[in-house]
Amino acid sequence: MENSVFVQRRAQLAAALQPDSVALISAASEQTRSRDTEYPFRQHSDFWYYTGFNEPDALLIISNRADLPVAQLLCRDKDPAQEVWQGRRLGPAAASETLQLQAAALTEQSSLLLQAINGSSRVYLDITENSALLHQVTAQIQLLKQREKRGDKAPAQLVDVTQLTAAQRLIKDQSEIAVMRRAGEISAQAHIRAMQYCRPGRFEYQLEAEILHHFALNGARYPAYNSIVGSGENGCILHYTDNSSELKAGDLVLIDAGCELAGYAADISRTFPVAGKFSPEQAELYQLVLDAQYAACNAVQPGSNFAKVTAAAEQVLTEGLLGLGILQGELQQLISDKACKQYFIHGIGHWLGLDVHDVGAYKVKGEEQTFMPGMVLTIEPGLYIPAGSPTEPRWWDLAIRIEDNLLVTAEGHENLTTAVPKEIEAIEQLMAAADAGN
Ligand SMILES: [Mn+2]
């Protein structure tokens, strides 16, 4: 992303603060995996959004005060001995130029933070997450209060910054949309690869390996979340990530996987038969979820909202489940009772962006958040019928979810993940062609 994008985002946040205020945004820290090894470093999404700077233990100070720069960065100093072991550091001098802001070493954090807080009317920070910073800020506020006779001034309020950052991140700009299109494309191709590789006798983790391989080969080294590959009854466990079972002919396999590219998540689910051909029951239930997914996608446009999209999907699911005899009763009653929720056990979708379950309000003053161009969301209806459900046993252990990523546009929406097939015929053809090729 161009540096000007980050400069513009910081200016936008500064403008959203109350007059004479500062906002503090922390970078993530390294997390221990075991003993002296760490998890792959993942930058804090807000910090990444405003800096594009991928080092741990940094702090961004944004201000709209006339006597302070719009943006100051505190980061690790250069240290040749440490860098030989732990990797390169940008250091304040290069950071200042590269990131187009004022930068100083972390050793100056205490004094620069005090300067930024002293005289500010409000201090915005994440009051739930970084308790070390919160402690430091409250200690400094106490100090300033003691020194008020000397002319120092403690801020009157600590405010949660995440409401402002979430509102800004909810609407994606052109550079974000370009990255998310690419993340969707890479993830779609990875799902295709898993469908092509799938055979009875192979294992769930082998499908996962195909997917991760495709992500990494295309510049997305890590998934956006732990990949779910659930065959047969495993598909009924929503966050199944053991991925350890052998794939059996006659079962469906549900895959929920998406890559992270330059910080941005894709989030795709597909369900297909292990042996490449849907049974009649599988096909009927699958087509029902697909019809519901189309109905929900069609309802994604400016002015719509998650409640309308949910209603569109639930209408189709309820009619279909009634038609198949899985639900019994009177249609309107079943719809108003939300009877389909017995088998459609999660929400229709969520915001998508730097976080897979991205920030952004779902309700605004008690009302549904209205869809606007630039918002990106998932549409993912599903049906899960575990063994023992009050249905004919032929439906048991079927689990189906179909999930795409949609960008709201002025005209309606753009589906970012259409490259991976979801029509029954298209899936069967793809898998048959892969079979013939081996
Ligand atoms: Mn999702």
CATH topology of the largest domain: Creatine Amidinohydrolase
The coarse silhouette is elongated
Oligomer: single chain
- Which small molecules are bound? manganese (II) ion
* Percent strand: 15-25%
The largest pleated sheet is described as: 6 strands, mixed
- Class derived from helix and strand content: alpha+beta
- Which percent bin holds the helix content? 25-40%
CATH superfamily of the largest domain: Creatinase/methionine aminopeptidase superfamily
State the end-to-end CA separation: 41 Å
- What Rg, in angstroms, do the CA atoms define? 25 Å
How many extended strands?
21
Low-confidence residue ranges: none
The order of strands across the largest sheet is: 6-5-4-1-7-8
Q: In the CATH classification, which architecture of the largest domain applies?
A: Alpha-Beta Complex
- How many domains make up the coordinates? 2
What is this entry, summarized?
With 438 residues, the protein is α+β, with helices and mostly antiparallel strands. Helix content is 38%, strand content 18%. A six-stranded mixed β-sheet has the order 6-5-4-1-7-8, sandwiched between helices.
What tags apply to this protein structure?
438 residues, alpha+beta, Creatine Amidinohydrolase, Chain A, domain 1, Creatine Amidinohydrolase, 2 domains, six-stranded mixed beta sheet, 13 helices, 21 strands, 18% strand, binds manganese (II) ion
